[in-house]
Specification:
Layout (H helix, E strand, L loop, with lengths): L2 H10 L17 H7 L5 H9 L4 H4 L5 E6 L11 H4 L1 H15 L2 E6 L5 H9 L7 E4 L6 H12 L4 E3 H21 L8 E4 L3 H13 L6 E5 L2 E2 L2 H5 L5 H4 L10 H5 L4 E4 L8 H5 L6 E4 L9 H6 L6 E4 L14 H10 L7 H15 L5 H6 L20 H17 L8 H11 L2 H13 L5 E4 L5 H12 L4 E5 L2 H11 L6 E3 L7 H11 L6 H10 L1 H11 L4 E4 L5 H11 L10 E7 L4 E5 L9 H17 L6 E4 L10 H15 L7 E5 L1 H5 L1 H7 L11 E3 L3 H13 L4 E8 L5 E3 L6 H17 L1
Parallel strand pairs: 1-2, 1-3, 3-4, 5-6, 5-8, 8-9, 9-10, 11-12, 11-14, 12-13, 14-21, 16-19, 17-18, 17-19
Antiparallel strand pairs: 6-7, 15-16, 15-20
Length: 751
Amino acid sequence: MGLEDDAREYHRTDPPGKIEISTTKPTNTQRDLSLAYSPGVAAPCLDIDEDEERAFEYTAKGNMVGVVSNGTAVLGLGDIGAQASKPVMEGKGVLFKRFADIDVFDIELDETDVDAFCRSVEAMEPTFGGINLEDIAGPECFEIEQRLRESMDIPVFHDDQHGTAIISGAGLLNAVDILDKDISEMEITFSGAGASAIATAKFYVELGADPDNITMCDSSGIITEQRAENDDVNEYKKEFARDLPEGDLADAMEGADMFVGLSVGGIVSQEMVASMAEDPIVFAMANPEPEIGYEAAREARDDTVIMATGRSDYPNQVNNVLGFPFLFRGALDVRATSITENMKMAAAEALAELARKDVPDAVVKAYGDQPLQYGPEYVIPKPVDPRVLFEVAPAVAEAAMDEGVARTEIDIDAYSEKLEARLGKSREMMRVVLNKAKSTDQRIALAEGTDEKMVRAAAQIQEQGIGDPVLLGNSDEIEGIAADLGLDFTPEIVDPRVDETEGYADRLHELRQRKGITRSEASELVQRDTNYLGSAMVEAGDADALLTGLTHHYPSALRPPLEVIGTADDADYAAGVYMLTFKNRVVFIADATVNQDPDEEVLEEITRHTAELARRFNVEPRAALLSYSNFGSVENEGTRKPRAAAASLREDPDVDFPVDGEMQADTAVVEEILTDTYEFSELDQPANVLVFPNLEAGNIAYKLLQRLGGAEAIGPMLVGMDKPVHVMQRGDEVKDIVNLAGVAAVDAQQE
């Protein structure tokens, strides 16, 4: 099937459409229903009657946006009417929910009269925290938005006007930065004079463009003062009428610094681009076909052309989904009464700033591993970049508070963390540790310092204040990588070729001479293998923690730290722990990487150290030692080991957390089984520390939970070492390195 048939099937598959309503409170018992509806619902109703602001406290209003359209100007389809526009409005609701966790009712009004349309929307104000106007024809859309903004006490935003303005405005800020142009002196030509073009031109003026330097063309040519005097254009176009001779788009583009296309595809030739000023900016945003194709525009010039389109298959996509979800998120969360120009400006500036930062690996993978680095082909962030939420929404919220349109004040730093938590439990848990890591400066040695991911991670570790990264390896290579990546930081490097390492070789020889390592071999190991160098640095106190494993097999990366640093005084064994996060639950799984067939003493140690790790994440541990047996239901050597380890832990007065076993996995994590069937268990709530009977079981379990259970995995985190060491999995992403650096920094604080 083709795209159109696929889309029809996608929409008609049961249940039809793309959205549904779900409950957010329990509705399982008679009492639940009496609270949700009659008679309990009367209490919040009466409270709201006394104070309407309590609607934000008791109802979904504060997270509810109405997407309202009459279907008179549906993108690419034109005036198809209210009913036919419904799939588009449902789709808008999907984007609100997917990118900013905002709930939506789509409202299709079969009404083209401006007065009647406005009255209908105004009557719905008690329902919504904001109104997103969509696909309404011009020039009526201007009047509708203006009237509703004046009459309603909630944000009203016409995305067709302002969305493109904000996103392309962010691209413009970065384009002039890269090209070293002065926006106030630029000649800007617009193709198109509809709602989006006029709003975009106005927004560019807010960004610093001179309105006298903006030439706007409609289907009849340049909008001139003579045409305005002859009433050849509507009142909204007249604002951009210029004292120029009449001409067409080709005339308007000659010598222009920037072309902004919001019209129809294929109307700009290579000759027209060639006629523009030096290093031109070409934003050809008609969809699905741009005014000129990406390759054609680039090939028309020998100098730099910063090109943007509305398409996802080319660099610099101007996609409105980068704007409206996050603009409304910030506005809703401070209960803003409107969306102001300053709030839009804050969104554009935040987007521009985000494009200048290192791009997460997950975003790069989503776009086919193509290079994404600030420059002519990357002036606008990608829509799937999760950081847009907690970069743009706080900027919008802060602007609303500064301007006095916010009903409530919030702490912006705490708000950013709250937004980050919306992206998943793992981010919420890691934020606990990363905040702890920032309290002191720990030196974190990164063994594989010449790997690009390590260099990028070092920059982020330093930028976020997690610690002081020390890259180990060839300094020329590391500095070259940092320069190629455009990273704005000067890394600390220990280069065994040129830096003094003999003291580390002496210490390694001292520690391993009775294991067959000679002095010359120790020197060679420190010079050649940065795992040994990093381990020796940590053992000597010249670094507080070590990260390695990115380019090594786990056992080979673990061996040097074990030989040089060893296990803690209260530990004979190290173990690997994964933290798995689900929507409303966190569990720690051990051992998943180190001990193949632990006896009861090893299981006991693993449990202690994993419980300590859980507390570093502010999780109070409840430990279960797992088996295929429940409390003696099967008697053999395999079931006796976890049973004996659990008993020994319970008898130890220093163990201050509940622990039980052996038990089956479902017994450990299902509260009803624990409390109904095994009410004698030491656990009165489901376990969050799961200790597996052997490496095979632990490794299989965490991977199944991650791949089939939807869990996010953080780790492996190494416990039981004398000093902080963490061995990553080969191929981990930059965010994994940064997360483990945070864990290592907190480990070092405990020392």
